[in-house]
Amino acid sequence: MGAIIWVVILLTVSPCLFLVVHIRKLRSSNQSRRITVLKTLGQSELHDKKFVGFFHPYCNAGGGGERVLWTAIAALQRNEPNVISVVYTGDTDAAKEEIIDKVKTRFDIALSPKTLHLVFLLSRDLVEDSTWPQFTLLGQSLGSMYLAWEAMSKLIPDLYIDTMGYAFTFHIVKWVGGIPIGAYVHYPTINTDMLARVKSRTKWHTNSDTISSSSVLSGAKLMYYRLFMYYYALSLRTASFLMVNSSWTKNHIDAILLLLKLLQPGGPGEARIVYPPCDTREMAKFSLEGRERVILSVAQFRPEKDHAAQLYSLHELFKAYPEYTKAGKSQVKLVLVGGSRNAGDAARVEGLRALVKELGIEQSVEFVVNAPYSLMLDWLSRASIGISTMVDEHFGINVVELMAAGVIPVAHASAGPLLDIVVPFHGQPTGFHATTPKTFAEALHKVLTLSLAEELALRQRARTWAVQRFSQEEFEKGWSESGWKTWLPS
């Protein structure tokens, strides 16, 4: 019996001792890895250099999250010449020079290769949702922890900032690196709305019909979500500072932080809103007059964007006001501009085309799939109305772009578009909100029947608000005031 106990102890303790020894070796050899990085960058002075690590496994994706990453790094390069920006990425199919070129082409952000180093990660597939068809949240979070281990094994920075939403990596970074941690959160990994939908057994793109139709499965999933939220809260409280992209995200993150405030002192008390930078310079040049009677949707063909609701809204509009279907000056058209990322998105587009036929609105709907940026800008310069039907859009850069382009927005009355974007400016509206196809139809009709003077004034207000509130300058100011620099070692 005693021998068995000793075997169990050895099997338990030995791996722990191995990890402790390995971590000590990683820390002690980190200085030499830093020197190697500086040599590849053409620099030699190590004593005055600080390394800021950005965890962003999809840094070459070209989306709104990537604009945040590269805008922050570009600001560091201008204002903090002694900081080396280290990006941990899984984009192993692109060289550093190619990524820098794409950032310039896609976002018009110029990066210096002299203070930018990329650490390429080989295990990114562990954070892909396709890798975890079941228990996706848990699987991706565990996968991110391994990815963080790989990252720290290659280079430990002075400060770690997650810019993609992988809070579970904080434990690994703190354990291996023992360094301060910060984050820019676009969307909470789990939130109280998700729990509420499971509890009420509401079918959703994150709550399948199989789950929602079963009380037993719904109960089990609710328990799983609650346990996951507890550990997500533990992860967030490991951070030294947190930035978020909107009021909606802040409200959820603060509520999650509050779960452990009494049990675990320390960590950030609340998150700070830093609105993402929106490049509205080109769009703000478009004329506000002479717009076509086009309702424009600009969004990837992802399930949460709910393009079907846009088609149903158009159908309701035509039912109530059939004059909009007739050829001539009153005719209205819906144009859906969006990216199709994969086979799932392509199938979704075909399903939407079938719905168009089913509703009998073929002559009034146009799909523009994977359009180049120039074509998207062309539609933004011509359209009269913009429509966004996503529920709980955490921010809504597409809505900001619509407003900057002079397109009057009709957005879902939730989250970012409701709380931060389509809000009164000098006491006057900058757009409209709706929740159902019928209320969307009525809001669309209201815009279509505005007088020319009212329409022009509304477009101007929407543009002025969007351009001044969500600019690159405002983002950089907010990022600087977050206090990130105070966590760098002196």
Automatic annotation (TrEMBL):
One GO CC term on file: endoplasmic reticulum membrane
InterPro entries (UniProt xref): ALG11 (IPR038013), ALG11_N (IPR031814), Glyco_trans_1 (IPR001296)
Organism lineage string: Eukaryota, Fungi, Dikarya, Basidiomycota, Agaricomycotina
GO MF annotation, one: GDP-Man:Man(3)GlcNAc(2)-PP-Dol alpha-1,2-mannosyltransferase activity
Keyword Glycosyltransferase: yes
Domain ALG11 mannosyltransferase N-terminal, first and last residues per copy: 50-256
Topological relation to the membrane, as annotated: Single-pass membrane protein
Record carries keyword Cytoplasm: no
Pathway the protein takes part in: Protein modification; protein glycosylation
Similarity annotation: Belongs to the glycosyltransferase group 1 family. Glycosyltransferase 4 subfamily.
Reaction(s) this enzyme catalyzes, per UniProt: an alpha-D-Man-(1->3)-[alpha-D-Man-(1->6)]-beta-D-Man-(1->4)-beta-D-GlcNAc-(1->4)-alpha-D-GlcNAc-diphospho-di-trans,poly-cis-dolichol + 2 GDP-alpha-D-mannose = an alpha-D-Man-(1->2)-alpha-D-Man-(1->2)-alpha-D-Man-(1->3)-[alpha-D-Man-(1->6)]-beta-D-Man-(1->4)-beta-D-GlcNAc-(1->4)-alpha-D-GlcNAc-diphospho-di-trans,poly-cis-dolichol + 2 GDP + 2 H(+)
Example GO BP: protein N-linked glycosylation
Chief place where the protein resides: endoplasmic reticulum
Subcellular location: Endoplasmic reticulum membrane
Enzyme Commission numbers on file: 2.4.1.131
Gene3D superfamilies: Glycogen Phosphorylase B
Residues of the Glycosyl transferase family domain: 282-463
Lineage: superkingdom: Eukaryota
Coiled coil region boundaries: none
Name the record gives this protein: GDP-Man:Man(3)GlcNAc(2)-PP-Dol alpha-1,2-mannosyltransferase
Purpose of the protein: GDP-Man:Man(3)GlcNAc(2)-PP-Dol alpha-1,2-mannosyltransferase that operates in the biosynthetic pathway of dolichol-linked oligosaccharides, the glycan precursors employed in protein asparagine (N)-glycosylation. The assembly of dolichol-linked oligosaccharides begins on the cytosolic side of the endoplasmic reticulum membrane and finishes in its lumen. The sequential addition of sugars to dolichol pyrophosphate produces dolichol-linked oligosaccharides containing fourteen sugars, including two GlcNAcs, nine mannoses and three glucoses.
